Amino acid sequence: MYIRGDHAELVVGGRLDVRSAADARTALHSAVDHGVGDLVLDLSELDSWDATGLGVIMGAHRRAGRCGRRLVLRCVPAQMQRLLVATRLHRILAIEGGIGVESLPRV
């Protein structure tokens, strides 16, 4: 897993899972704490995430809210969109362009 960018936009790539959660949490919290306005997470290079990785994203979302910021997901891969819909988190998280729920293949 890697995260590159600044305090306004980060690109997350590789696998966001239990092995990379601590590093990802540290990077996201630092970006939230040291920036202003929306924090955009570009997920176009993310291969996969597990429940722990999703928990890291939700933790960053909550922290951003407490800091008066908003976490915005950009370019969410289709398989991860399905997970967000299945867990109903697409209703809580800000997703650039939204998710076309009706266009997602059924699992």
What's this entry about, in short?
With 107 residues, the protein is of the alpha/beta class.
Architecture overview:
The protein has 107 residues and is α/β, with parallel strands linked by helices. Helix content is 36%, strand content 27%. A 5-stranded mixed β-sheet has the order 1-2-3-4-5, covered by helices on one side. Helix 1 packs parallel to helix 2 (51-66). It is globular, with a radius of gyration of 13 Å. The model has no long low-confidence stretch (mean pLDDT 91). This is Anti-sigma factor antagonist.
Rounded mean pLDDT is 91
Q: Write down the Rg.
A: 13 Å
| Poorly predicted parts | none
DSSP strand (E) fraction?
25-35%
Q: Could you say which overall geometry the principal axes of the C-alpha atoms support?
A: globular
Topology pattern, helix = H, strand = E: EEHEHEHE
**Spatial order of the strands forming the largest sheet:** 1-2-3-4-5
Which structural category do the helix and sheet elements fall into?
alpha/beta
Helix coverage percent = 25-40%
Assembly type: single chain
* Number of distinct beta strands: 5
Terminal Cα span = 26 Å
Number of helices: 3
**What about the largest sheet?**
5 strands, mixed
InterPro entries: Anti-sigma_ant, MlaB-like_STAS, STAS_dom, STAS_dom_sf
Protein name: Anti-sigma factor antagonist
Pfam families: STAS_2 (PF13466)
Organism: Streptomyces pyxinicus
